[in-house]
Amino acid sequence: MNPFYHRARFLTSASNISQAPPDEGAEVAFAGRSNAGKSSAINLLCQQKNLARTSRTPGRTQLINFFSLDDQRRIVDLPGYGYAKVADTVKKRWQESMAGYLEKRRCLRGIILVVDIRHALKEFDLQMLEWSLHRDLQVHILLTKADKLKKGAAAGILLRIRRETAGSGDSPTVQIFSALKRQGIGEAHDCLDTWFELKSSGQKKDPGIQGE
Ligand code: GDP
């Protein structure tokens, strides 16, 4: 358990990058198809019940939500994707705001890609990997809802995804996760610590991160 992440607080929502907080310090963004378990993962890692809303609220789902950890570090909840029913204009707006954020955000250190272990990897996930590769961004894949599978089956998928994604740039790291069973928290925190340049205690700041 790493208490540094428990201090996450909602900062602001943005429908496009012009409404985002100043592009300084360090951000890690969480992405995932709708219903993959992204909100549950953020809530668990930050040890808060309702930080990222697990129920989808119409109108808010298309926004980029920013949470501050300290004055230099933020977690970002990117809008989910995957509703076949949403209008094309909504999809287009989603693509534009995502692409704008992913391409332009200089303080972005990496992407946590939340994937339902039973559906790994879908077109959206591959697109995210491609975008990240294009921008030379690190990716860490959380294969979540692992509790839905037997241990051996989950381990098999972990190996397959590692194999499939190896060699795409700085190969993504992949782990098993379950919000329900609280599995994988330490490994995910370790990844965040590295990207945020935090010491292993998770609480001391590395003077390396300053405003840009
Ligand atoms: P989001 O749309 O990606 O933010 O997904 P949510 O976090 O809202 O989760 C979607 C559904 O999956 C909810 O009913 C959650 O309770 C469920 N869920 C999320 N994580 C897990 C998990 O690790 N295990 C199981 N069994 N269900 C999960």
3D architecture notes:
The protein is built from five helices and seven strands; from the N terminus they run E-E-H-E-E-H-E-H-E-H-E-H. The chain is an alpha/beta fold. It has one domain (3-201): P-loop containing nucleotide triphosphate hydrolases (Rossmann fold, 3-Layer(aba) Sandwich), CATH 3.40.50. The protein has helices spanning 38-45, 88-104, 123-135, 151-165, 185-195, and strands spanning 9-14, 26-32, 64-70, 73-77, 108-116, 138-144, 173-176. Strands 1-3-4-2-5-6-7 form a seven-stranded mixed sheet, sandwiched between helices. Bound molecules: guanosine-5'-diphosphate. Guanosine-5'-diphosphate is lined by residues 32, 34-40, 54, 80, 144-145, 147-148, 178-180.
Question: What does this entry show, briefly?
Answer:
Helix content is 30%, strand content 21%. The chain has 212 residues and is α/β, with parallel strands linked by helices.
Trace the largest sheet across and list its strands.
1-3-4-2-5-6-7
Oligomer state equals: single chain
Give the rounded overall mean pLDDT.
87
Heteromolecules bound: guanosine-5'-diphosphate
Largest sheet composition: 7 strands, mixed
| Total number of helices | 5
Helix content: 25-40%
C-alpha Rg, in Å? 16 Å
Number of domains: 1
What is the tally of beta strands?
Answer: 7
Residues in β-strands, percent: 15-25%
CATH C-level: Alpha Beta
Which residues sit in consecutive blocks of at least 5 with pLDDT less than 50?
201-207
- The CATH topology is Rossmann fold
Distance between the termini: 30 Å
The CATH superfamily is P-loop containing nucleotide triphosphate hydrolases
Query: What does the overall shape look like?
Result: globular
| Alpha-beta classification | alpha/beta
What is the succession of H and E elements? EEHEEHEHEHEH
CATH architecture call: 3-Layer(aba) Sandwich
